[in-house]
Design a protein that fits this description.
Number of strands: 4
Number of domains: 1
CATH topology: Glutaredoxin
Distance between the termini: 24 Å
CATH class: Alpha Beta
Mean pLDDT: 96
Number of helices: 9
Length: about 200
């Protein structure tokens, strides 16, 4: 089974994007009023446009202090962070710019992006509670191809907020989803960053 998953990952990596390429793809889709994924709808195109704005903002504003920059640059293991996503995914728009900032500080961290609906076998190998939840990051030892850890679809604090809300209300309401976006904005990527640093430390 392990070798099969390595083969699936290897196949997906061959069709992967860099973050820069993914950002260009999203911008092109915004111009076309379209979206990635199996279904093209006006609503998903609107989410894609909104996510492009979110990523623009985080690409410009997310900062890492000098002490943490030094810590990340000293990491000495060659890893690949492979992220499954789609252009309309709201959580991904907050998470991916932070992943990119961290990866950019160390040449041994290779950040790659693939689309969920074009990589169904990979997605089905890394479900969350039986669901094809995105974004999903797979941390891979680049040399051996072994899967080290997975991360997502949300940072740890947001995951707890979602779980607590579901336990009380059963489903996630549109009001809660708006509150979650406010949480992301208020947190300024720090929970995501701390989660990623924990991944590197393990």
């Amino acid at each position: 089974m392990e070798e099969r998953i390595k083969d699936i990952i290897g196949t997906s990596l061959k069709s992967s994007f860099s973050y820069k390429e993914y950002r260009k793809l999203v911008k092109d889709l915004v111009k076309e009023k379209s979206n990635t994924g199996q279904y093209k709808t006006e609503e998903l195109a609107e989410y894609t446009m909104l996510n492009d704005r979110r990523m623009n903002r985080w690409d410009k504003t997310f900062k890492i202090d000098e002490e943490q920059v030094a810590k990340i640059s000293q990491y000495n293991k060659s890893i690949t962070w492979l992220v499954l996503t789609e252009s309309w995914c709201g959580d991904a728009a907050h998470i991916m710019p932070v992943i990119n900032k961290v990866a950019s500080l160390n040449h041994l961290i290779d950040f790659k992006v693939v689309l969920r609906d074009e990589n169904v076998e990979l997605m089905n190998s890394f479900l969350t509670n039986g669901n094809q939840s995105i974004p999903k990051m797979i941390a891979i030892d680049t040399e051996s191809g072994d899967v080290l850890k997975t991360y997502g679809p949300r940072p740890s604090e947001a995951t707890q907020l979602v779980n607590d809300y579901k336990e009380t209300h059963g489903i996630l309401t549109s009001e809660f989803k708006e509150d979650l976006q406010k949480w992301y904005n208020k947190n300024k990527g720090q929970n995501i960053f701390n989660d990623l640093i924990t991944l590197l430390d393990q």
